[in-house]
Write a structure and sequence with these properties.
Blueprint: H1 2-44, E1 45-49, E2 69-73, H2 76-79, E3 87-91, E4 99-106, E5 111-115, E6 118-121, E7 124-125, E8 128-129, E9 149-150, E10 156-158, H3 168-171, E11 179-188, E12 194-195, E13 203-204
Antiparallel strand pairs: 1-2, 2-11, 3-4, 3-11, 4-10, 5-6, 5-9, 6-7, 8-13, 11-12
Length: 218
């Protein structure tokens, strides 16, 4: 009888030990997955709350009851350079060192001018995606009174609400090394959830000639 109790106790001990080992492995794998996810997030992504309305209406800032929260991804720029019309994140080059998001409008080696609220690159007005037809740029700062600015090795960025935006018109083009990633997705609020990549299938036509006459260029 005592021997049977001993055997039964040994079996219960083995069962309990096996259960503990399974639970430990579950926790171990869970924490490993969480750790890997944490590393991937910090290396590849970042989340930012929009503070100003300089990118309105694309990005809504703290003047709204529910400002946008945006996911920025860094992966794309490991393999390629920024493209025109993408929204990039960087820190200002002044003492304030503010985190900002602006839209790329001119690329390295290009010269930019603003005429009649339209972008002119290397002396030619450029089309833009139809989804960005609301853009109306103002020739402030370096671009005042039709002046041109050479991007050199940097990226010229502007706010979508350029009446009230501190951007490359005042700070100059931004070096690629200063860009922290591409604003990719509005996470919050739910009614504004969506990708920030403009559709490129259809272009808005440029109007720099007399009223009623549309001029389309590349």
């Amino acid at each position: 009888m005592q021997q049977e109790l001993t055997i039964s106790g040994d079996k219960e001990s083995v069962v309990q030990t096996g259960w503990v080992k399974k639970l430990f492995r579950l926790f171990e794998r869970t924490f490993a997955i969480i750790g890997i996810g944490f590393i991937i997030y910090h290396v590849c992504f970042s989340v930012s709350a929009i503070r100003s309305d300089s990118m309105a209406p694309t990005l809504i800032g703290e003047n709204s009851a529910s400002p946008d929260i945006v996911l920025t991804e860094r992966i794309s720029y490991w393999f390629r350079k920024p493209r025109r019309w993408e929204i990039v994140k960087y820190h200002t080059q002044d003492l304030l060192d503010l985190e900002v998001m602006k839209r790329v409008v001119a690329l390295p080696g290009e010269t930019i001018t603003i005429r009649n609220h339209w972008l002119v690159i290397n002396g030619r007005p450029i089309e833009r995606p139809l989804s960005l037809d609301f853009l109306k740029y103002y020739p402030y700062g370096y671009l005042h009174k039709g002046r041109s600015e050479d991007c050199k090795d940097g990226y010229f960025v502007l706010g979508d609400d350029s009446k009230d935006s501190s951007d490359s018109r005042f700070d100059g083009a931004i070096a690629f090394s200063k860009l922290e990633g591409r604003a990719w997705l509005i996470l919050w609020p739910p009614n504004r959830f969506g990708l920030l990549t403009p559709k490129r299938t259809t272009n808005a036509k440029c109007r720099l000639s007399a009223p009623g006459k549309a001029m389309s260029t590349h």
